[in-house]
Amino acid sequence: MGKMRTLLGEVAYDLYGHRLTSNLPSDQLPAHVGVILDGNRRWAAEMGSTSAFGHRAGGEKIAEFLGWCEELGVEVVTLWLLSTDNLARDPDELDALLEIIEETVASLAQTNRWQIHPVGAMEALPERTKIALTKALTQTQKVKGLLVNVAVGYGGRQEVVDAVRSLLQEQSAAGKTLDELASAITIEHIASHLYTKGQPDPDLVIRTSGEQRLSGFLLWQSAHSEFYFCEAYWPNFRKIDFLRAVRSYAARNRRFGI
Question: What is the CATH superfamily name and number for domain 29-251?
């Protein structure tokens, strides 16, 4: 009887997922989805296990999530794996987390399904992590599939600082004076020096674990994004949770600040 109930539950889940998918308007789906993968540690604590166990479970969820995005025709996904604030964590926990991130990114690259693009302050990361991220970038740069930004050592404020610094250095090398730059600088100038330059801004930003704040995620790019906050911890995030987020997005009247 227990197995029968489980089987019926799985069938009902699949049917609900198919219904959600079929009811999504194809012309109102997000091209770029940003995700704050939150709740790994709390999920592990409730399981009576370690933070590393939670982070590993969270890492294993990513490939499944990217598959859901592929099914809907999403073109870009940005995954926030490690913030600049996280770099100040307990050294042992941070070392374990970085190792999991390195393994996760390597695993994603090995599938040869997705183009991996690291975003963040690479200079703040340990050498081995920089090597792992650079290898994934090089290995997948010719892949035609979904573009996956892996945000490691990422902070929205730091990104803007880095963009402005890069712009100043570029203009200085071109012989421009500070006064000339100040009189001519535009939003487009700064945008062209962001970590995500050349990419569309996120249409939909999802945060798991019930927290309702951005915490500095894609501060510049999310000016006109739609936000969806899900109660589930990231390791428990299901396909129907994702489809509900997309359904919510599709039902909104996007006015882009107007």
Answer: Decaprenyl diphosphate synthase-like (3.40.1180.10)
